[in-house]
């Protein structure tokens, strides 16, 4: 169940980061509220995940899901453009997330 919480926490990290962008510096009240709600869910699920998983594993996976997910959202919905080299580093980040999961006890 801890891995499910960690996955949900990572997804909601992407959600709150996306809504924070859409809040225009917290000037759009609806998106500001959605940002805070996303943060609460993300941090709450991370807290539940770290109850069973080591922090040294859970935290980097959580931030990695958020980082890779935010890149995908930025490119897909906000028109962000990344160089091929940047995409290579995003791929390395994804490989690192998977590696941490596979090599942790």
Q: Mind explaining what this structure looks like?
A:
The protein is mostly helical and 105 residues long. The chain has one domain. 84% of the residues lie in helices and 0% in strands. It has 4 helices and no strands. It has helices at residues 2-22, 29-52, 55-77, 84-103. The longest helix is centred in the middle third of the chain and has 24 residues, at 29-52. It is flat, with a radius of gyration of 15 Å. The two termini are 16 Å apart. InterPro entries: EmrE-like, Small_drug/metabolite_transptr, Small_multidrug_res. It is found in: Cell membrane.
Question: Quick gist of this model?
Answer:
The chain is mainly α.
**Which structural category do the helix and sheet elements fall into?**
mainly alpha
Tell me the quaternary state: single chain
Q: Beta-sheet strand percentage?
A: under 5%
Enumerate how many helices there are, as a single number. Answer: 4
Helix content: over 70%
Unreliable segments (pLDDT under 50, ≥5 consecutive)? Answer: none
> What is the tally of beta strands?
0
State the order of secondary-structure elements, H for helix, E for strand: HHHH
| Outline | flat
Family: Belongs to the drug/metabolite transporter (DMT) superfamily. Small multidrug resistance (SMR) (TC 2.A.7.1) family.
Membrane topology: Multi-pass membrane protein
InterPro entries: EmrE-like, Small_drug/metabolite_transptr, Small_multidrug_res
Subcellular location: Cell membrane
